[in-house]
Amino acid sequence: MKAKREEVLRKILVCTSQVFLCAMLIFSGKLAIAADRPNIVVFLTDDQGYGDLGCFGSESLETPNIDQLCKQGMKFTDFYVHQRCSPTRLALMTGSHAHRAGCTKVIYNKDRIGINADEVTTPELLKSAGYTTGIVGKWHLGEWDTFNPTRHGFDFFYGFMIDLDQGTGIYRNLNRVESIKRKTDGEHSPKLLDAAIGFIKENNERPFFLYYASPLPHTPWIPNERFQGTSQRGTYGDVIREIDWQVGELMRTLEEQGLTEKTLFIFASDNGPVLGINGGDAGPFRDGKWTDFEGGIRVPCIMHWPGTITPGANCGQITGIIDLLPTFCAIAGVDPPVDRVIDGRNILPYLKGADVRTPIHESFIVPGSVIRHGRWKLLVRELNPGGKSGREGKRPSARAGSLFDLEADPGETRDVSADHPEIVADLQRRMELAVEELEANSRPIGRLPDDHASETRRKERKMETQQM
Ligand SMILES: [Ca+2]
């Protein structure tokens, strides 16, 4: 009897040690995979126009650090986002058009919606490859606790759940650590920068993903005092200088830590500029934020990765924020989700300079609104100008059915639909197919349950305030 018991115990011990060994091998394998992967930094600005950088043609805004990135990296001239904040951020997190992931509006603090827990997010995927993940700045994908970035793949969060002008606070992970009654960007941006620099330094020996979601240059413009009056373009120029300084500080930190060549650094804006207030500039494009004219959805983008991306490279293909998730998966060595439609494409071969003949995307489509296909752009509904001055009628609308030749007319000024009925028909058909496919394969935005959620939030806030 005793011998049998010892035999059973021995088997259990052998089995346990084998399981332990397997776990160790898997764990060490994962670390081995992760250790040689590059870091990824996404610096996303808020409402910066296509023409709001020196390297994208501005003659009055000074952006020496960003210009340097551009000179050493790849410039994307046809990079698309959505026309406003939350949808672009949702597309970055999901690799899918915001329409597919269920939200095309700005998520405000009164809304009971946010990113769906069923989404497989960019940071979740990178975490599965052994990355440490951090977000600094503006989240804007739901204000409630359940939507907090640390519940959606981020190990670290320092910043705001929504826009500062909605009266919120600064969070560190799940906790609100500072109350903010009014928007004072300039006061907070050094704190954001410090948090980002701290995150880089803490993780200098393992791969990390840092999403620096700057609240600049969103209105109202309140530069930090050290930048006030430093530009040729008034307060807006001062804020752009501050952004540029932040980019420079992050690059300097990477350099100090010996990580420059081990880091893919991406700079982009979340949507076009706010026009009509002596501020942002959409460069050669029509209109700005809140519209699907090029000025609203085409933004500056630069990717910098010395030793991998050829300095001074240019990408004139249709690309977009949706491409970041599959590209990051390729870099990290993990598969994107296969149980759902991901709209983005892996552009890593293009970053490496491979001679790939197939286009990244044939089209960029805003479902039910516009389709860009090659040089052509068709509006399938009337487009109104964006923002206040748009509503006041200072800038014109464009009728449904307008066709623009973006190569000859990037400013979308001449409707050539009458000259090209076959192109109009082709693009209309492509839009119909895209909308049909989207309706069959879209996913819902996350929603709070109807029960007492608002009461819970108020209580939580009260408790947090008491703890402060
Ligand atoms: Ca924005």
Indicate the structural class: alpha/beta
Order of helices and strands: HEHEHEHEEEEHEHEHEEEHHEEEHEHEH
Rg over alpha carbons: 24 Å
**Could you give the distance between the termini?**
63 Å
CATH level 4 superfamily of the largest domain: Alkaline Phosphatase, subunit A
Largest sheet report: 11 strands, mixed
Q: What are the low-pLDDT stretches, counting only 5+ consecutive residues below 50? A: 19-30, 462-468
Assign the CATH architecture of the largest domain.
3-Layer(aba) Sandwich
Number of strands: 17
Into which percent range does the helicity of residues fall?
25-40%
Specify the CATH class of the largest domain. Answer: Alpha Beta
Q: What amount of the residues lies in strands?
A: 15-25%
Bound molecules: calcium ion
Kindly report the CATH topology of the largest domain. Alkaline Phosphatase, subunit A
Number of continuous helical runs: 12
Structural domains: how many: 2
The overall average pLDDT, rounded, is 89
Overall geometry comes to globular
